[in-house]
């Protein structure tokens, strides 16, 4: 059995709202947490003025925010077109799962940033707008809302958002952090898979994005794996992903090459040894397949039973 990746889903729903008066029911105004004071104080002014604006009509904050970041990335689209992909009329909103899936259907990576303010600033500083999910009400009666963060003004300590009907919505940093915290600081960007990974991404999250893209666009996922392998040559999983794509396309010689690269980087990667054996079986390289699967079995792990099944496929010499 050839082994592959896995992922998880998100289920919050957001419609449309505006930020005005979001904390009016609170007796105390929020403050920036002490551990983030340095991050806020050292961030230089930034504003991505080239991010387009689409006013968020009622319940359309999902399609509108997607249109803004995708258009900025170079995609020709509109809120109405994207609504066909993500808007759920029965729920009058858009799930996080659909927000992440729509860019993938168009061939882009949906990259979930680390749920921290520094990660958001890193994306902005790299010239990338960030879609965020905010809860404008209380946890017991949430009012979910998507917005696009496009900048920060240090002097006023305001973040700059494309939000609701406002092209340039200023929100105090402390207020934003409180509203964002209620979604567990959920946010993402869109990335072209043919481009080198931008400076703000890390190998693990980029890999997760490429794996998710593979379901809707294997070709573009392959481009992302290639970029990942160039950027992080010591990470075996990008070679592993390329091997799986080649195997699925019945390009077994190419699959063998990529699995060998994976185990060359990380010899203790049992799954890669197993998949290498599978490719070698297809290429009728019996002795090499037996050597590969024996290494997988020797490494063991919770999938050793699968490795033993692979060994049973190798014909006797």
Automatic annotation (TrEMBL):
Every Peptidase C39-like domain range: 50-160
Xref: InterPro entries: Peptidase_C39-like (IPR039564), Peptidase_C39_single_dom (IPR039563), TPR-like_helical_dom_sf (IPR011990), TPR_rpt (IPR019734)
Keyword Cytoplasm among record annotations: no
Ranges occupied by TPR repeats: 236-269
Keywords: TPR repeat
Keyword Thylakoid: no
Protein's name in the database: PA2778 family cysteine peptidase
């Amino acid at each position: 059995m050839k082994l592959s990746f896995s992922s998880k889903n998100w289920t919050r729903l957001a419609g449309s709202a505006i930020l005005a008066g979001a904390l009016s029911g609170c007796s105390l105004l929020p403050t920036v947490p002490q551990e983030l004071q340095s991050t806020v104080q050292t961030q230089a002014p930034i504003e991505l003025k080239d991010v387009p604006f689409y006013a968020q009509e009622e319940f359309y904050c999902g399609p509108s925010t997607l249109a803004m970041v995708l258009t900025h990335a170079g995609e020709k689209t509109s809120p109405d077109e994207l609504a066909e992909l993500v808007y759920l009329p029965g729920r009058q909103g858009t799930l996080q799962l659909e927000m992440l899936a729509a860019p993938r259907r168009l061939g882009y990576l949906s990259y979930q940033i680390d749920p921290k303010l520094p990660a958001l600033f890193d994306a902005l500083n790299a010239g990338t707008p960030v879609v965020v999910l905010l809860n404008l009400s209380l946890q017991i009666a949430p009012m979910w809302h998507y917005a696009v963060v496009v900048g920060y003004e240090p002097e006023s300590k305001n973040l700059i958002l494309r939000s609701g009907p406002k092209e340039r919505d200023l929100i105090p940093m402390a207020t934003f952090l409180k509203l964002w915290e209620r979604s567990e600081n959920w946010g993402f960007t869109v990335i072209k898979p043919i481009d080198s990974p931008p400076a703000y991404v890390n190998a693990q999250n980029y890999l997760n994005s490429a794996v998710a893209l593979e379901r809707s666009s294997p070709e573009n996922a392959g481009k992302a794996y290639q970029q990942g392998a160039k950027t992080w040559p010591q990470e075996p999983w990008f070679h592993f992903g390329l091997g799986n794509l080649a195997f699925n396309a019945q390009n077994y010689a190419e699959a063998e090459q990529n699995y060998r690269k994976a185990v060359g980087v990380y010899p203790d990667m049992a799954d890669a040894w197993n998949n290498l054996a599978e490719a070698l079986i297809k290429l009728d390289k019996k002795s090499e397949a037996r050597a590969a699967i024996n290494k997988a079995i020797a490494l063991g792990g919770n999938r050793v039973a699968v490795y033993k099944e692979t060994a049973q496929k190798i014909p006797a010499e």
